[in-house]
Amino acid sequence: MTSRTTTGRRTRMVRLNPHLNSQARVTSAVARPTARTHVLLKFRPVRRGFTLIEILIVVTILMMATAVIIPFTDSTFAERRFQNSMDRVSGHLLSARLEAMERRLPVEVNWSDGHMETRIFSLDSIESIEVGEELAMQVGEAASGMSDAEPQYIEQLQLPPGTQCRDQQPVEVESWAPQEQLDAQDSSAIRIAVFLPDGSVIERRPRWLVDQDGRVAALWIDRRTGLPSIQRQFDLDEASMEEEEVNEFDSIDRDRDSSTDALGESDEGQPS
Q1: What is the pLDDT of residues 165-177, one digit of tens each?
Q2: CATH number reported for the structural domain that contains residue 195 in this entry
């Protein structure tokens, strides 16, 4: 059985099954693409989600990686902050030396209450410095033009909280000292150096810079040139310095002083 369908000028012949009624023909035509779709879905790979065990494993790995990375990052940043404090202390001392040379007056640098302070050296404090007679006369002549008024601070350096300046080398036992004792030590004023107009320095004993995490740096100033030197030493929380290392550091300082004195004596012995 055939039927003729006319669309415009085109005529299409549709062959129909004569044994099926109209409803059966429509059902047969619709069932063919549906069956083809079921075949395609049957061979398509099935996508499954993550199981709870897999998610827990990933979270555990991330937590372990975070526990390793965060302390390392904090330690690196703290070390950089301490290195920055060392550079600032060295720069502050160089600035004080230049102030003494420009003003033609002795300038002292003190540590008090977490601050490093620079001011004009007072004549009333000359007796507190153990120097030779010639050097004392030089200081008196350089400071003869200054008034007896209360000295004003030329410059102040604020270091991070918890940073201390010690006049003695810290040891492991001091790292466990009570906070009240540390505050008392920090509040006491410590004279770091007195720079003269010629750039030299007096009161130059070694000082120790300690931060709140126990990092230690040694500070000393060359007597003739007045140039500061600060070097990273050790950490209090690792292990205390052995007595041999302390003696070695002191011997290096003494050898440096002796070589400097010998050089100065050789210069003085040469005829002008």
Answers
A1: 888 877 754 444 4
A2: 3.55.40.10
